[in-house]
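Design job #97: recover the sequence.
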C-alpha cells in the first residue's frame, strides 16, 4: 500500500489536532494513487520519466516528480519506492503532455445541444460512477462543503469564503471555473494554485483509473466532469478542512451536484444567461440554480427579482430548506478597510460570503470555539475582515499596468513613453456588464488613493494591482497626460452583443465616461485545447473575422444611430491591416460612413498585434495615457494576461 505522508502544524480548531498528520493511502481504492499507466496512454505520454526499484518489475510513465518537500512515497512492507530517472524530460514537457490529454476530453458541442457523450447513462449518473471508480464515495461525504450557484458573483463569493475561512485558521480547498491562464487556477489549496507536481500526481491517477474502466456505456468524462472529480480527489487527498465548490453551469444538472450533504448552500445574483441550457425565463433559470438545495441544509441568497425569488423559495419549501435572504455588506462593518475585490456589486457578494462562513462555522461547531469572546455577533471578527480585504480573483475588476516600456532605474527613461493601463473584467451578461461599466468609470474617474489592502505584483513586463483599483497619479502628472479610453472587446457568439454593448456604453455615459475607440479582436484561446501559462501562440494564423466585423457594425450603430456598411474582408493576417497611429486622436467627426471609413472603431486580426500596436502608440507619445477596458469574455481577459506576463 502506497502512503503519502505530510506533516504540518495546525491551529487547535475543532476536529483538528495541533500536530496534524496527513496520510493518504495510495491504492486503487483510495484517493492518492500513483498508478501504472495503461498501454492506451503511450501515445500521449513520454516514457521513462519515473523508474521503480527492480522489485516492482514495472515502469511508471507520464510524469516525473520535482522536489516535493515533506513527501515520502513508499510501499509499506515491500520497500517499493520511486526515484527520479537521471534522463527525465523537462518538467514543462510533462505538464504540456497532461494538457494534451485534457484537451482530448473537450466534446466540441455547442451549449444547448444534446450531449455528445455516448453511453446509456445521464451526466450525474456517470459522475457517480466515476467517483465510485476512484474510490471517492465515502470520502466526499466527509468533505465539509460550501456549494455556490448563481449567474454572477459565484467566483467572487467563493473567493471571499475561502479567504475568510483560511484567515480563521482552516485548511481550505477552492474549486472555481473557468481558468484564465493555467488550468491549475481552478484548484486552490490554502489560497494558492495547486503546484504543478501535485497537479500531475493527482491528474494521472484519475486519468489512469478511469481509462482502465472504460466501457461502451461509460466513456472518459468530458472536460468539466473530469476536472470536477479531480477537484474532489485533490481536496480529499490534501485533507482540507473546508471545500468551497463553485457550480459550473446551472445547478440541478451541473457536474458538481453529486454533492449530497453540503454544510451550506448559496445562490448569488441571478440574471438571464445561458438561456439555451437553463431556460428563457428568470424563473426557469432560478429553478435550475435551486437544484443544489438539499433537504434541510441551510441556504442563503441575495435580494433577487420576484420571479427568481419565487422559484428559489418554492424549491426551498419543497425540501424544507431554511432559506435566508442576505443584505449587502454594510461598508461600515469593515472598520475602515476596503474590500479587495472592487466594484459596488462586491458588497452583495461579500454579504453572502459572510453569512455562508458564519453558517459553516456554526454547523461544524467552530464558531463558539473561535469567537466565544466576541461580545457582539453583528461585528465582523478580525479574521473575517482580513479575508474580505485580501481575497483575490484574477480577471474580475483587475487593473494591470503594462511596464514593458518603463525603466525603474531612470526617471528620464520613465518619462520617455506614455502610460498603458489595462482594466480587466470578464463580464459577459447584461447584469455583469452594467457592474463592469460602473467599476471602470469609477476607476478611471475616481481620485481615491490606493487602498491599504492592495498591492502590486511585479511580473515581468507588468505591474499587477489587486484591490479596488483606484490609482492616484497626482494632479501634476494627470495634467500632462492625454487620456484615451479604449474598449478591447470580444464575446462568444452565443452572447447577444446588441444587448451587452449598449448596456456598457449607456452605463459608462451616465458617469461621464466615454470611449475614444473600440477595438474588436478574436481571442487567442481556442475552445478545443487546454493550454498552460507557458503556451502562448504568438504566431496566430489568419482567422475568420466575420464575428468581429459584426461587433464593429453594432458598435458603429450605437455611435451613429444607423447601420454601418463596413465592406471589408473577413480575413486579415498582417500588420498592414493595423489602423494608422492618428486613429487614436480622431474624433467622431472624422467618420465617413459613405467612404466606409470609421474613426470610432477598428477590427485587428490578432491580439498580439493589438497589444504591440497599443505599446507602439504610447512609446511614440510620452504625453499619452491609454486606459484599455478588456471585457466581454474571460477567454479574452486571460489571453491579455498571458501576453502581459511575457
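Job complete. Output follows.
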Amino acid at each position: 500500500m502506497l502512503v503519502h505522508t505530510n506533516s504540518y502544524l495546525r491551529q487547535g480548531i475543532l476536529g483538528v489536532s495541533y500536530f496534524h498528520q496527513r496520510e493518504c493511502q495510495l491504492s486503487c481504492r483510495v484517493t492518492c494513487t500513483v498508478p501504472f499507466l495503461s498501454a492506451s496512454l503511450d501515445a500521449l505520454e513520454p516514457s521513462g520519466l519515473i523508474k521503480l526499484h527492480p522489485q516492482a518489475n514495472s515502469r511508471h510513465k507520464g510524469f516525473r516528480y520535482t522536489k516535493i518537500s515533506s513527501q515520502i512515497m513508499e510501499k509499506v512492507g515491500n520497500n517499493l519506492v520511486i526515484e527520479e530517472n537521471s534522463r527525465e524530460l523537462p518538467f514543462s514537457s510533462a505538464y504540456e503532455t497532461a494538457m494534451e490529454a485534457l484537451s482530448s476530453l473537450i466534446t466540441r458541442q455547442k451549449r444547448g445541444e444534446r450531449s455528445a457523450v455516448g453511453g446509456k447513462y445521464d451526466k450525474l449518473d456517470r459522475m457517480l460512477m466515476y467517483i465510485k471508480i476512484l474510490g471517492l464515495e465515502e470520502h466526499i461525504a466527509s468533505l465539509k462543503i460550501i456549494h455556490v450557484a448563481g449567474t454572477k458573483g459565484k467566483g467572487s463569493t467563493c473567493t471571499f469564503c475561502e479567504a475568510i475561512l483560511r484567515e480563521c485558521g482552516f485548511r481550505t480547498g477552492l474549486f472555481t471555473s473557468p481558468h484564465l491562464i493555467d488550468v491549475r487556477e481552478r484548484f486552490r489549496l490554502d489560497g494558492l494554485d495547486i503546484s504543478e507536481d501535485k497537479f500531475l500526481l493527482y491528474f494521472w491517477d484519475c486519468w489512469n483509473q478511469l481509462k482502465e474502466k472504460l466501457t461502451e456505456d461509460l466513456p472518459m468524462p468530458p472536460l468539466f466532469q473530469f476536472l470536477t472529480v479531480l477537484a474532489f480527489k485533490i481536496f480529499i487527498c490534501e485533507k482540507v478542512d473546508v471545500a468551497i465548490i463553485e457550480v459550473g453551469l446551472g445547478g440541478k444538472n451541473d457536474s458538481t451536484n453529486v454533492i449530497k450533504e453540503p454544510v451550506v448552500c448559496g445562490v448569488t445574483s441571478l440574471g438571464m444567461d445561458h438561456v439555451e441550457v437553463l431556460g428563457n425565463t428568470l424563473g426557469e433559470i432560478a429553478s435550475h440554480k435551486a437544484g443544489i438545495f438539499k433537504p434541510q441544509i441551510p441556504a442563503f441568497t441575495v435580494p433577487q427579482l420576484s420571479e427568481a425569488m419565487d422559484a428559489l423559495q418554492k424549491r426551498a419549501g419543497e425540501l424544507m430548506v431554511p432559506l435566508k435572504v442576505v443584505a449587502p455588506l454594510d461598508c461600515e462593518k469593515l472598520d475602515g478597510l476596503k474590500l479587495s475585490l472592487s466594484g459596488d456589486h462586491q458588497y452583495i457578494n461579500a454579504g453572502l460570503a459572510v453569512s455562508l462562513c458564519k453558517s459553516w462555522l456554526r454547523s461544524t461547531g467552530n464558531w463558539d470555539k473561535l469567537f466565544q469572546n466576541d461580545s457582539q455577533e453583528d461585528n465582523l471578527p478580525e479574521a473575517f475582515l482580513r479575508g474580505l480585504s485580501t481575497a483575490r480573483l484574477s480577471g474580475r475588476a483587475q487593473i494591470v499596468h503594462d511596464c514593458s516600456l518603463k525603466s525603474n532605474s531612470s526617471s528620464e527613461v520613465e518619462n520617455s513613453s506614455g502610460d498603458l493601463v489595462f482594466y480587466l473584467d470578464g463580464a459577459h451578461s447584461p447584469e455583469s456588464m452594467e457592474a463592469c461599466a460602473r467599476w471602470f468609470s469609477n476607476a478611471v474617474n475616481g481620485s481615491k488613493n490606493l487602498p491599504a489592502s492592495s498591492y502590486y505584483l511585479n511580473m515581468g513586463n507588468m505591474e499587477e494591482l489587486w484591490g479596488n483599483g483606484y490609482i492616484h497619479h497626482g494632479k501634476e502628472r494627470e495634467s500632462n497626460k492625454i487620456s484615451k479610453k479604449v474598449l478591447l472587446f470580444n464575446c462568444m457568439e452565443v452572447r447577444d452583443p446588441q444587448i451587452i454593448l449598449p448596456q456598457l456604453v449607456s452605463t459608462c455615459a451616465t458617469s461621464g465616461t466615454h470611449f475614444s475607440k473600440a477595438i474588436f479582436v478574436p481571442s487567442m484561446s481556442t475552445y478545443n485545447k487546454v493550454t498552460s501559462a507557458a503556451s502562448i501562440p504568438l504566431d496566430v494564423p489568419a482567422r475568420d473575422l466575420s464575428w468581429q466585423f459584426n461587433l464593429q457594425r453594432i458598435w458603429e450603430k450605437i455611435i451613429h444611430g444607423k447601420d454601418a456598411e463596413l465592406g471589408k474582408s473577413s480575413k486579415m493576417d498582417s500588420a498592414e491591416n493595423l489602423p494608422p497611429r492618428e486613429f487614436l486622436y480622431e474624433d467622431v467627426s472624422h467618420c465617413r460612413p459613405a467612404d466606409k471609413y470609421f474613426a470610432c472603431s477598428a477590427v485587428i486580426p490578432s491580439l498580439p498585434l493589438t497589444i504591440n500596436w497599443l505599446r507602439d502608440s504610447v512609446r511614440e507619445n510620452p504625453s499619452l495615457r491609454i486606459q484599455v477596458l478588456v471585457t466581454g469574455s474571460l477567454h479574452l481577459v486571460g489571453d491579455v494576461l498571458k501576453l502581459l506576463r511575457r
